[in-house]
Amino acid sequence: MDTFSIPTPSPSDGDDSMPETSDRKDDHIRIIEEEDVETAGTGFADIDLVHEALPEIHRDEIDTTIELFGHELAAPIVIESMTGGHPNTTKINRALAEAAQEMNIAMGVGSQRAGIELDDEDLLESYTVVRDVAPDAFLYGNVGAAQLLEYDVEDVEAAVEMIDADAMAIHLNFLQEAVQPEGDIDARGCLAEIGHVASDLSVPVVVKETGNGISRETASRLTDAGVDAIDVAGQGGTTWSGIESYRAAAVGASRQEKIGQLFRAWGVPTAVSTLESAAVHDCVIASGGVRSGLDIAKAIALGARAGGLAKPFLGPAGQGTDAVVDLIEQLELELRTAMFVTGSASVADLQEAEYVVGGRTKQYLDERRRDR
User: Fold this and answer.
1) Considering the chain, what percentage of its residues have pLDDT values greater than 90?
2) Beta strands in the chain (DSSP E)
3) Which helix (H) or strand (E) holds 34?
4) Is the pLDDT of residue 330 over 80?
5) Region 217-235: what's the mean pLDDT?
6) What is the distance between the alpha carbons of residues 250 and 246, in angstroms, rounded to a whole number?
7) Which residues bind Mg(2+) (predicted)?
8) N or C terminus: which one in the chain shows less Cβ crowding within 10 Å?
9) pLDDT tens sequence across 107-148
10) What CA–CA distance (Å, rounded) separates 170 from 147?
């Protein structure tokens, strides 16, 4: 992987200037590569798919295709929104997009705030490169819910046009913002703005968390707001609270550093969030600590349409397109194997596969049901 040159971040009084936004993207890549930013607790270890000893199907004839907003994709694998907004990230997004094009799977870009608000051709290329190299791939854009308080629908349309997006993700990252020394901590009015965008935008809207999960109650509010899909991005896997804790430490913001560590493993576990969101919305993407095709299979059995991964693609993206394709092929074979040994000839069959829930996840779900 390339070695990135990282400007030293500086604390601010809450005025999140665009150069700081761009530099922060580079900070994030370095920290993810160099520091311990993984947490356990997705809940997938507590999910057992019931084995089918007589599947009566041919493994290589299993149909892994799915439909997403009118697009047929070769597999229910999503390259989750990761980066963009700094020239150093162009190579990463190019490799990811080329692989998405070759393998016919979905891919998202990182937050496009810098691209919308900064007039910088090199920075803009870190986003536009994805459509340049992936003319037929399913690509989705990305803006923050907090920024919707500043943007109108035309601004979000500009993000759509930037990459000729097939859908737009609106990310929820308020714990991350609360840990950032320069974070945006005003969450008032976001749900109404999400509903406004979902109603008026030219492409479908996906609302996604960023590592802390979405509860059934929140999923219901988003469903009522008219969003087209929910990406749960649950607890487990990469911790953005932990990442921002490292950034806070670098600028001497000791209180924010401690907050980041305290809330490092906060959130709704991915397996729980998937089950709860799928109970109220018919298009759920499971992400947050998804690390294998078997995890994707479990998520689909829990009700997801697809499974998404981010960090596992970062290292391969630094090596180039072939390495990303190799990882996708490995994930697809793992998924296909899980489908084979559950007797699932299609993704629709896998959604009906039998499973057993144990451990902390069962306890969590039982307690949640008692509270309703």
Assistant:
1) 85
2) 38-39, 47-49, 66-68, 71-73, 77-79, 106-108, 138-144, 167-172, 205-209, 229-231, 237-238, 284-287, 306-309, 355-357
3) helix 18-34
4) yes
5) 98
6) 6
7) 177
8) C
9) 999 999 999 998 889 899 999 999 999 999 999 999 999 999
10) 9
Record the pTM: 0.92
Class of the CATH domain delimited by 40-366: alpha beta
Annotated binding site for substrate: 24-25, 111-113, 176
What is the pLDDT at residue 287? 98
pLDDT at 166 over 80: yes
173 contacts: CB under 8 Å, gap ≥ 6:
144, 145, 209, 210, 240
Tokens of 181: 């020394």
CA atoms within 13 A on the CB side of 92: 30
Specify binding-site residues for FMN. Answer: 81-83, 111, 142, 208, 238, 289-291, 310-311
- Residue of 286, 331, 289, 281 lying closest to 304 (CA atoms): 286
Binding residues: 24-25, 81-83, 111-113, 142, 176-177, 208, 238, 289-291, 310-311
For residue 333, give the nearest of 284, 285, 296 by alpha carbon. Answer: 296
- Please report, for the chain, the start and end positions of each structural domain, with discontinuous segments joined by +: 40-366
Residue ranges for the known binding site for Mg(2+) are 177
What is the C-alpha to C-alpha distance for residues 233 and 175, in angstroms, rounded to an integer?
Answer: 13
